[in-house]
Automatic annotation (TrEMBL), chains A, B:
Family per record: Belongs to the FAD-binding oxidoreductase/transferase type 4 family.
Spans traversing the lipid bilayer: none
Pfam families named among the record's database cross-references: FAD-oxidase_C, FAD_binding_4
UniProt entry keywords in alphabetical sequence: FAD, Flavoprotein, Mitochondrion, Oxidoreductase, Transit peptide
Highest taxon above the source species: Eukaryota
Span of domain FAD-binding PCMH-type: 76-256
Subcellular location: Mitochondrion
Name of the protein described by the UniProt record: Probable D-lactate dehydrogenase, mitochondrial
GO molecular function, one term: D-lactate dehydrogenase (cytochrome) activity
Organism this protein belongs to: Rattus norvegicus (Rat)
Annotated EC: 1.1.2.4
Functional description taken from the UniProt entry: Involved in D-lactate, but not L-lactate catabolic process.
Taxonomic classification: Eukaryota, Metazoa, Chordata, Craniata, Vertebrata
Named cofactor requirement(s): FAD
Gene Ontology CC entries for this record: mitochondrion
Length: 466, 466
């Protein structure tokens, strides 16, 4: 990864051993600009929407539309023509049917915390906000599964599960809608041990574009595995709202960790940190989190959070298990880091001390924002997934151009290493070209065929993925 | 599960707590009957096949066709009109294109070890045997991945990996083709810890029905996770040869276990054994295998293998890890079994003693075959996946009829418990009706749409899945 310093290009320090790196550019938030209403919806149509969900649950107010036309990414705001809040799946079905018959685009909306412009209504249309459908429907502790509506966020679910002995570990940065996380194929710091949404969604209830209701694994079913027919669940996970509207998700739960230990270690080089990571995984240490911060990031964190960490490539690790198991995992890990020239190996058991130890990682986002000019790397190194954070001035058009070019080059760098252009955020608006380069022409044709089959009118979240 | 004893129906002893059971009926092997050549292939067409792969690699001999018209299931032999052996993916592509243009059905063939009639050429056609493409193409130990051609079986791969520190854990009973395992979404005794094929296939190279070459995750790519576009890999895994021909698979490898411990425990009831299983999983004991044999099976094993095991519902467990970790896992597990009335808890570390302990489980199939009349249950209880083994007389038409009805009822029992009709074998020929009941009309419509899109002429392995 190249970094821009004051002197121009720094030598690349891309971790060479990985074949599965991916990158993304997380740019500073671009405040929404109001787009004039394009075409708009007829009064009759708006009345028809009200007839489905009730007047209080339809809005064409400018501020409301603006709010629903952007996410947390740099993509400029593209507001829908109306926002609606259905109360149940039957209303969602009727809304879809209504919009589809009238040729009106449909954009599903959860928490608006995506980072690829997934909710930008590039052709206007109706934003269907699922936030009012917020029930946790069914918890099966013996079967390790739960059913949630789209208004349920991951933190809300884990709060609900607090005394059940189970938890849902997929943890993207935001407190996102779980159904939204299913739609984007989200992931987080725990993926190295617990997997991503792809590994943790058992069944989806989806309203198809024409209003028909699909249960991807069959209505009400939850099981640990199946070989029954085509994997529809897998198809809709990560489909980014372009194939249908997810109205509930059956999720796989995991036993809550008995105890947790956090650790950090500094390294003389990025290579040493990456080698340690590979060796820890090869040793089958069931590490729960393994995160990498480069030295620029460590320096930023020291300054921002008044810490005193070594300014060096650093690994942040977390282990889950019994007390006995943790002691051994820690021991093995320390030995591996030492073999790779690691220093300042520190660890902590109690929650407060663990939080202190991980302060740099927790505050990375804010420390990065405070750093100007600055480019840093933060990554879920256990999955070979890094985030390259670039701070830009939204008013500097030239800088925006350079950053966009950089982001594309970064994606291509990952592709050149047999990786993917997006490890966990989806394709959205901005990576459609890179997706073509990633999967090739037959891959794109195949995806296009699937899209055209399930959404022949091209009304489900237009302009995304393909 | 109901069992037929000499006195008629026994009381059901279906594990009540599980919502994810699935079942299948494994019936005794039905020797192949020769079907008259249906329609057949023109001499010109056979010459065209020879022009692609060379004369030695095309056969229309009756015995060869018979051999390729059945698998290990009860489904009667339906031979193809010809068998061809391509040497490389280019030939596969040309074969597919040739067959597709001429409206000739295509049936991919690996090891012929499936159990759902997946290779029966119900409309005749060309059987494309992939066995000559048997290279292990690319091993990436730092990235935990390997690329294999369809002629590579799981045991061949693990033999190849012997000194690499890695292994591929998915272990269906047969020494099956890994690409065939991907096609059927196979699983095995290790799934409770290591997952099924769905969790362990990173990328597939697929020749589409019309001959185009698709790389489901992009050519040459291997990574630990991605959120890039529609999950084509997931769509082709488990598609049972009905959407394309898999010509290579990129698989996820795992660190080879440092040490292994096996254990067994007898229980006063099926419920006690199942409760123990649930509690072991809730305690996050990372059990590698956890298998259940009912008392009929235990009795059969004692008689067949001259053992002296308690004739009671029994769990067979295996643990992988470091010596230290294993000791603790064993301890916790024993405590849980004791809480549930378990007895005769035995364990072993060395390979020879482990094999002795698991003798009953290893010989279950043969012991069952030796038992007549007999019906037994064997299961991967950690996944809620059981196999109900029924011994039938292939010449007794009435018995065949009753068994078929029983198998359907069994599947429906699983469905009624929110489970699946097939946990690991696929749908094939015999479970198409149950699939409809499992996923419902919209699910079937959606699958049908996908099938019609990718195979508009309906020539890829006709008569399977849908």
């Amino acid at each position: 990864m190249c970094g821009w310093g004051p002197g121009g290009w720094s030598p690349p320090f891309f971790p060479p051993a990985t074949g599965h790196v991916c990158g993304f550019c997380c740019l500073s938030y671009d405040p929404c600009t109001v787009s004039p209403l394009q075409g708009g919806l007829s009064q009759d149509f708006v009345e028809a929407l009200k007839a489905v969900v009730g007047s209080p649950h339809v809005s064409t107010a400018s501020a409301v539309r603006q709010h629903h036309g952007h996410d947390e990414s740099m993509h400029r705001c593209r507001p829908p023509d109306a926002v609606v809040w259905p109360q149940n799946v039957d209303q969602v079905s009727r809304l879809a049917s209504l919009c589809y018959n009238q040729g009106v685009p449909i954009i599903p909306f959860g928490t608006g915390t995506g980072v690829e412009g997934g909710v930008c209504a590039v052709q206007g249309g109706v934003c269907i906000s699922l936030t009012h459908m917020d029930q946790i429907m069914e918890l099966n502790t013996e079967d390790f599964s739960v059913v949630v509506e789209p208004g349920v966020t991951r933190k809300a679910l884990n709060t609900h599960l607090r005394n059940s002995g189970l938890w849902f570990p997929v943890d993207p940065g935001a407190d996102a809608s779980l159904c939204g996380m299913a739609a984007t194929g989200a992931s987080g710091t725990n993926a190295v041990r617990y997997g991503t949404m792809r590994d943790n969604v058992i069944n989806l209830e989806v309203v198809l574009p024409d209003g028909r209701l699909l249960h991807t694994a069959g209505r009400g079913r939850h099981y640990r595995k199946s070989a029954a027919g085509y994997n529809l669940t897998g198809l809709f996970v990560g489909s980014e709202g372009t194939l249908g509207i997810i109205t509930s998700a059956t999720l796989r739960l995991h036993p809550a960790p008995e105890a947790t230990v956090a650790a950090t270690c500094a390294f003389p080089s990025v290579q040493a940190a990456v080698d340690s990571t590979v060796q820890i995984l090869q040793a089958a240490v069931p590490v729960a989190r393994i995160e990498f911060l480069d030295e620029v990031m460590m320096d930023a964190c020291n300054r921002h959070s008044k810490l005193n960490c070594p300014v060096a490539p650093t690994l942040f690790l977390e282990f889950h298990g019994s007390q006995q198991a943790l002691a051994e995992q820690l021991q093995r890990t320390e030995a591996i880091t030492q073999d790779n020239g690691g220093s300042h190996f520190s660890w902590a058991k109690e929650a407060e001390k663990r939080n202190e130890l991980w302060a740099a990682r927790h505050n990375a986002w804010y420390a990065a924002l405070a750093l100007r000019p600055g480019r840093v790397i933060v990554g879920h190194v256990g999955d070979g997934n890094f985030h390259c954070i670039l701070l830009v001035n939204p008013d500097d058009v030239e800088e925006q151009r350079r950053v966009k070019a950089f982001a594309e080059n970064l994606g291509r760098r990952a592709l050149a290493l047999h990786g993917t252009c997006t490890g966990e955020h989806g394709i959205g608006l901005g990576k459609r070209q890179l997706l073509q380069e990633e999967v090739g022409p037959v891959g794109v044709e195949t995806m296009r065929q699937l899209k055209d089959t399930l959404d022949p009118r091209g009304l489900m979240n237009p302009g995304k993925v393909l």
